[in-house]
Write a structure and sequence with these properties.
Elements: E1 15-17, H1 19-24, E2 33-36, E3 42-44, H2 50-59, H3 65-68, H4 75-86, E4 94-98, H5 105-112, E5 116-121, H6 124-134, E6 137-140, E7 156-159, H7 168-178, E8 184-190, H8 196-208, H9 213-217, E9 227-228, H10 231-240, E10 243-249, H11 265-275, E11 283-290
Parallel strand pairs: 4-5, 4-7, 5-6, 7-8
Antiparallel strand pairs: 1-2, 2-3, 3-9, 8-11, 10-11
Bound molecules: zinc ion.
Length: about 290
Amino acid sequence: MPNTVPCNLCGSARGVPQSRKARFLNIPEPFGVCRCQACGLIYLNPRPTIPELAEMYATHPYFSADNATRGKPRRRFYASRMERLERWRPQRGTMLGIGCLEGGYALEVAQNRGWRVSAIEFSPILAAHAREQLGVEVEVVDAWDLSSIAGGRFDVIYSHSLEHFPDPRASLRQCRKLLPNQGLLMVEAPNTFRSIKSTLQRAIIYLAGSNAQQLFFGEVPAGFHLYYFSPRSVRAMLESEGFEILELRTYLPRHPVYHGNPRLGWLQELFYAVGGPFDRGPTIEVIARVVG
Ligand SMILES: [Zn+2]
């Protein structure tokens, strides 16, 4: 059942369908991609319902044990990410991890660096991997509902899954309640339509035909990403919920895996080196702080 939703950033229901973007991402009918006419946010609409999303996370082969070990070659990258975070909080403290995508290795790295980590996850398979193989305390939740989280407050919330939240503004509002004044939030989202990598991929699909899509998005289920952020829209969304942006970067060195393939890590490094300084690297990383 397709579910039609308004723009999560500004509330407008005036979304313009983006059929070329939907084709690029290999999104089948009746789902689609639209761009908010009022604020420019690009998101999946219509999209699967919340129960359908929960079923996808529980049953789609993409969330099998294969995905759970995807983060393993990225431990060095996750360590460099935590170094960036720790520049703002060298004394460590408590960390809530939202999502164990790629197996929760980032949270394992944080734990080994002295953070007291607990986490929530949509997928029972990824949660079990993080808990049993990496020793991260993980709870399985529905719909990224943070309202039931025990333990009250955290010094830092870390998530590399903002684009998976059905209602990111509500989730950010809940994050703000779980953080003290000056508490830190670190999030990552793909720079889906702004990056040089995506521009090149779109050019390849345009020239080589739709078969080339399988190279980039073949295995990923529709509804996997619900939002396609840009540096501008992710900044606007965080600021709309009372966060001050401390750092926003798309240059992330030591990210040596290209579509799960460490042998093509040099290509990923190239995309970061060429696009990153111009906000056109493949991934957006933000460190933000609660104000007021
Ligand atoms: Zn909007």
